[in-house]
Amino acid sequence: MNFTIDADLRKRLAGIRELGRTQIRPLGIEADRAGKPVDPDHPFYALLLKLGLGRTRWLPTDDSALGRTAGRQHESGDSLGSRAGASLTGVLLSEELAYWDRGVAVSFPGPGLGEPPVLSMGTHEQKERFLARFREPDRPRWGSFAMTEPGAGSDVAAIRTSCKRDGDDWILDGEKSFAANASRADWIIVWATADASQGRGGHRAFVVEQGTPGLGDFKIEKKMGLKAYESTSFTLRSCRVPASNLLGGDERYAKRAGFKGAMESFNATRPMIGAMAVGIGRAALDEAAAFAREHDLGGDARVRDRLERTRRKLRVARLLCWRAAWLADQQQPNMIEASMAKAQAPTAALEAALLGMEVLGEVGARGDHLIEKLFRDVKAMDIVEGTGQIQRIVIGRQLLGLPRS
Ligand SMILES: Cc1cc2nc3c(=O)[nH]c(=O)nc-3n(C[C@H](O)[C@H](O)[C@H](O)COP(=O)(O)OP(=O)(O)OC[C@H]3O[C@@H](n4cnc5c(N)ncnc54)[C@H](O)[C@@H]3O)c2cc1C
Fold it and tell me: What is the DSSP letter of 191?
């Protein structure tokens, strides 16, 4: 494995550090206190575009499947530049962004979680139609990904949003929940089922464009943390979507390929989510260590021991994220490593936030210290992109040679 960070990447990490200190963290705290997402017209997003962020990494000449470009995109929509080592670059930048504020990082403009399925399943024409606008965006633009429904989270086979063919269109009906940036998105990748009795075999992915009649009822969900970005529910009511917006076209869906597309997408994004958890955990550990230094708690071996243990667990988690991303960059299968990274990192980060709350004691409990916000922010990292339990099921089944459930 080679985890070399070259001079260019060091420079970009330093740039994020500066942006994080001066803009990202203050904006995250402001959104948290206001209890609402950063407005899509906020000048911060225009600044990000000027800095070259909020873009797609898809090049019109690059039609490789996601397996070969896995991880080039993450929720932050950050631009990662060069193709070589893009997944590893992605996890490094993800961690640094989340260190400053994970909610703000996810609110960054860009195709976001919607990009991996377009890359892995979309035709060249669809990539051109839906990603080209993110190459040199004229204004902040977002993409979104909607799998979850009020009755279907971990068990994606349970989705009930239906799709029925009608001439040159498909008619979509159903409800989606918790989709990041959905109400501000140019388009949303909506997962629906053509035949619920087929479970995942019936899945289809559509690009539903904003303004399509029948797409509506956007409602920003209430969240305990990560308030800077919107997690949004919406409905599809007799929503007519052109057949040309079915990702990959009809032929793509033979042999459960819809489900395969979703899984490829998760293998690309899980290491990023893990890295973001490490970022939040690192921030919490820094708060705990700073407080221990300022209040002479370093003499207490129990405090030192817990700080050390937490730091070590975060390092282990980080290495798992790096390895999963490195495998993606080598165009090697990374499903188990991606699940391991996603299973480990949020647990380590949660431990760091809990440690911070305990070390800070009543200062943390008052509710106006960063540690308390990190404590609320971190929990979702174990939930999104497949919960910790689901990752452990994936790893356990593979270990025992059982088929994927
Ligand atoms: C902040 C946030 C952002 C999100 N962003 C998006 C997004 O952009 N797009 C999107 O589509 N979704 C998004 N989600 C939804 C997320 O993917 C789901 O919440 C997640 O898949 C879990 O589903 P659920 O909440 O319905 O929990 P459930 O699936 O109902 O699970 C409840 C509990 O049971 C456990 N459990 C479930 N099945 C098993 C099992 N077989 N064995 C053992 N334990 C099990 C779970 O681990 C969990 O602890 C987001 C959620 C959050 C909180």
Answer: E
